[in-house]
Structures are given as structure tokens and as C-alpha cells.
Amino acid sequence: MSLDIDDILAELDRDTTAVEMSSDGINLQNDASVDIMNSSLDGTNVAPKGQLLTSKVRAISPVEDFNKLKTLWKNERCSPELLPYPHQLMRRMLIRIQEQMEHLEILSMNFFEESAGGGGNGRRNGNAPANNNKMLPLLCMEAELERVKFVIRSYIRCRLSKVDKYSIYLRQINEQFLNEEHEEGDMNTETRISPLEALLSSEEIKYHQKHFSLLLNLLNESVLKYMSDDLQAINDTEGTVNMIDEPDWNKFVFIKVNGPPNGENEFDPLLIHKLDPDRYYYSITIPETNEDIELIIGSIYIVRYNLIKDLLKDDKIELL
Amino acid sequence: MSLPKQLQDTFSPKELQFMVEEEPIKIFPRFTTRQKIRKQRDDLLGTNSHRWKMLTMNDTSLNNMVAMQSTTVTLWIALLLKQQSKCNIIAPEWLTSKALDRALQFEQTNTTRFSPLPWDWLIISEILFKKAPDDFHDPVHELRSKIQDLREIRQLKVAKGIRYMNESHLQLDNLSLLEINELRPFISGIMDKLREIHLAAVGTGDNNEMGDEDDNDEMFNGTMRNDSSRLL
Amino acid sequence: MGYYDIDDVLADSAEIPCKFNHEIPGLGYLENNPGGSIHVNSQVKLPLWLARVLAIIDVAPDVDPITGVPSEENSAFLTLMTPEAFSTKVINAIKTDPVALDLHSINPQFYALAIKWIGLFSDQDLAEIVSELLLKRAQVINSHANSITISYNNDSINHNNSKSLNNQTVFTLTLDEFEKKIYKQANESYKDIKKWMFQS
Hints:
heterotrimer; A: alpha+beta; 3-stranded antiparallel beta sheet; 8 strands; flat; B: mainly alpha; two-stranded antiparallel ribbon; 6 strands; about 50% helix
């Protein structure tokens, strides 16, 4: 699986690296929702500048992006389901990596020329300790690049492993959606985004399609074609046990409660404020017992994923 | 295949170390990067191309280091500089003999709570003991044994706390990154099973079954279905 | 969980004692009477997946030929009876000493079977007993998992002598398959951390 940086570079206008800040602050930095809006179009225009007069536009710092990426990576690793792909964030990260790689290349070329021209130590030994202070930034920048790449690789690998695991399930929810879309006919002039398009990057969609057809082919060739017609299904949901593995929605996960990403506790309608002791918390309810649980900001809990997944998608909690 | 089995649903110790290496720490650099002071020397050397331009951190502090003036950098940078003998790491305030004694006392007096040690206390102390043992004021073996004492007393509390596992939830304040990770498979595994037992008794199946085919919302939320439907 | 979960399949094949509510022609071979009928109140062990269906599907109730009133007796093919795994004897053993119990010999898929059984009858009492059992045993599983020897590259760190190692083995033999899985996962997790901490 390769993410083609050139493609992305070509279609992206660098100056659009900005997000909307909604004035009520509720959907702030919700990459997912922004992404879903854009991914159905051709994905080029990021910030509809001027369309929303009330909102402020703010440049995103690379540091914030990297922190967000680390959070997404951890969340993805700890959540039972596949979380939405952060289209814009990944675009920006990949562009920056590309730029940094070019920058480093120029730097090391300069460095080489310098030391060669200086007549002193003509050869640059890559393994020599950077006893020269001039080497240090280059060394660190190279190390940093490797660290960023590691997070991205690990993140994508984790996502692909879930695409593998839920291959049939993902296909099923998508088909269901397309069928509904078809039934509704031309009632909707706007094309809605399919679940797969909302969840996956275009590369991941291709990967999923390929993986699914290989899997189907394998099952057919090795087993199913030798069985009678009525035993060939791999997606029977009518029987006593569903054949399609779904994410374990109720799985217990470790969470930390952060509150709204902008820190404005008093403007989050879901937050409950209680005094004595002074605390802000989200309230969730265990469905079968009607037991209420207070999720206090700053605290760590182990709870069922299903009960906190909306808070997770709104960046109000993180998985640990 | 895409992700090794042992990395699914949890993190390896090395990955935890990676996360902690992203945290800030104070150092005494042994060299200067601040431009004004450097300028003349740069001119002599005839170069200016070695500015720090970082992707993942604010590089202002890196470009404004003054020898022997404390500054804050990302831990992995500090470790890299340390390795090149370019800085001394300033041990965090809680990682002194005195502070650890206080933490130990807290652990002993509060039998049902964990002392508010930093989120990464076990990992960062381990890293610093290994990579910067000469930067501590207190003897490292003494600090190490106190960390070990803290670890053991907390593990004992966890072992006792396990009996409060249930099908609903647990609050685990001040449990640290490493502690959560080593307990993760055990606690989530047992609590998942307790939940299955509980849900079977109240008659809400927990078997990942599909809900009503045409109820899209249910679809995405995952569904609970009355277990009796499994019988038919 | 899931369609292809082997422990789920095995739990479904556990033998359940069943009592027939009706005389059924041709099923006599189930009680060594080939060609004959199976009689009312005959007891036969059937796998759970089959017994469950037969205990729920109604046969047409016997109707009193004179009054036309359907009989009040159980109309399902058969009645499920408590399997050995949840017999009073086992429940008492659970209550006495949950930790010493050889759960594996009672049923290797004890919890999976218990969950199915609890679900059939919405049996709150059994749910409580089984939860308590799991909790008590979990504490022991955890301490075993945490204290096991780690040795790699012959550079071993021994916390246990061979005798207690032997105890470990005996202990793991008494675990049901789910407990074994948790034990392994927890043990791996503790071991990884220890390795990381001891590495030079």
C-alpha cells in the first residue's frame, strides 16, 4: 500500500491549510466532520473561505497536526471499530514530510560541499558522531522525520488490519447503504457519502475491494464450490449466529476524559457542572440497568465502547 | 498481517517509550544556537544553513539555546543531545529521593488510592536511569529502589482492586500509562466476560448480531437483540 | 464470539439431559429401542444446539377428545434439565472453594456454556454465582500471570523455583479455555513490560 504523495501534492493548494472555527466551538477541529463534507467532492477545496462569514479562519500549526495524529493513532489502536480517515490532516502531514525530505536533501548537500570545500575533513562519514554542532540539527531533523513516518505507518497498518478483519462487514454496510440510496431514487439530488467513503481513504477503498475479492476467491476455490448451493453463503445474517463479524461494540476500553477540545467547558451542552466537589462531567447510562455513570473531566475510566463512541468522535475523550 | 497480533488492541513497551519520548523535559545545553550570539562565529565559519526546522515541535527553543541556560525540549531530542554529550538533562522534580519518599508515604497512608505521580513516571524514570544516570543529584541505585518500591506497593493495590471489577465500569485515577497497558488484556478480558454473563441474565443478547436490516441507525450503533431470537 | 468461534461451537455441542414430553414414533433408537417409539418422560442426552430448538418449538397440544380443551402439559417436544456443569453438586463446590475447582474437567468451555444456559432461562442466580466464580478465580489468574519466570537468551531472571513452576502448570490445567486465554494474554503483557525494564 503506497500513499502517492505526488498525486496529493498536485491536487492541493497549499494555502488552504486552514480549518473553520465554528463560533459556538462545538465542532471545533472535528476533522471527521470536515472531511466527510469534502471527501465527496473532489477533495481539493479545504476551507470554503468567505462562505461562512461568521467563522474565523486560522492556520493550523504543524505541531497541532502531529499531536492530533498521535491521538488518532492511539484511538485507532484501542477502538474496536474502524474510525473515520482524517483526509485533510493526512494530506497536510504527507506534504510536510515531502517538503522536509527535500529540505534535508539540500541541507546535507550543502553540508557535503561545505566540508569538502573547507578542505579539512573532505569525506562525510554518516556514522561518525556529530561532534560538529552543525551536524546536530540535521541529525535531529532526520530522526524526527523517521518518527513521524513511524506514527503514520503504524496508524495505516492498524487501519488496514481492521479493513482485513471487517472486510465482509464493511462491504455489507456499504451495500445496504447503496440499496437504500437506490430505493430512494432521485428524491435526493445531493449525493450522500457512502459509509466506506466516509471511513476510508481512496487508497484504503481500493485495498478493501482487492482484499475482498481475493478473500471471496479463496473461499470459493478452496471450499465453497464443493458445497451445495444453499451452503455457499458467507454473509448469512438470518441464522442463529450472524456469519459476519462485526466490531465488538460493547468492548471495554480505557478512556481519559478531556472535555471539549477548545476547553470551553461552560459552552458544551453535554457537560454537567456540579459543585461540591466542583466538577464537570458527561453522563452516560448503562442501557440494561439504567445506571448513570459520571465521566469527570481529567479522570480515567474503563467503560463500554458503545457508550462513549460519540464523545470519542467529538474529541471529548481519548482512548488509552 | 498488516499489524502483528501482539500489537492489536494494545501497545508494546517500545511504543509506550516512543510516546513518552514525545514529552517535554528541561535540559542544560552545552552549546549555543541563539542567532545573535552565534552570528559572528557563523560568519567566521562561513555558513548559516544549520537552523533547526522541525515538523513536530516548536523549534523556537532549539534555535535559541544558550550554553548552560536551562531550556525545555522534547525528550527524544534531549536524549539525542545527551548521547552526543551536548547537554545535561534536568531530572524532573518528582524524581528525587525526597519527592519519591513523599509519594511512597502517600501510597502507604492511602490504601485505596494511587499517588498522583506523572502519567509516564515508570517509563521516564527507566529511560533516564539508563541514558542519563550521571545527571541525578541523588544516587541512582537509591532512586531506582524507591521507584521499585512504589511499583510494588501499587501492584499490590491493583491486585486487591481486581475484585471490584464488574460489568459496568471502573474509575482508575492516577493509574499510569505503563500500568494501564500491562493490565489492559486482563482487566478488559475479564470485564468483557462479566458483561456477557450479566447481559445473558437480563435477556439482552450481546452477540454482535445484526439488528433490523432496514434500520440504518441501529446498524451503526451496533445492536442488542433479545437472546430469545437466537433460539428460533 | 462470532460464527467461527471454536469455543462457541464446542459449548453448543455440550450434552444436555432432556426429558421428552411426548411419545414420538421412530425415535426409540435414542434409548436403545430401535424401530420403537420414544416414550413420555424418557431421558436422553442431546447436544445443546439441538435440545434448545426442541425445547422451544411447540408440537400441536394434545386435545381432550370430549371437551376439545387442549391439555395443559408442556407442549414443547422436550424439557431441558440442568446439565452436570450446573448441578447442585458443582454449584456447592463453586461456593465452597471457587479457586481450587478444576473447572476444565467440569467443562472446558464452562463460561461459554454458562452464558448460553443463563440466557435460556434469564437465570439471574446462576449469573451471579458464575460472575463471582470468575472474579475470585481472576484474582488468582492475575497473580499467577504476573509472577511467572521469564528467561530469554539463557540470561534468565528467576522469580520462582522449579517446584512453584510445577504448581503453575497444575494450576493452568484447571482453567477453562477462556481463563486460559486471559492467563496467556495477561502473562504475555506482564512479561513484555518486565523484559523492557530489565533490558540493558
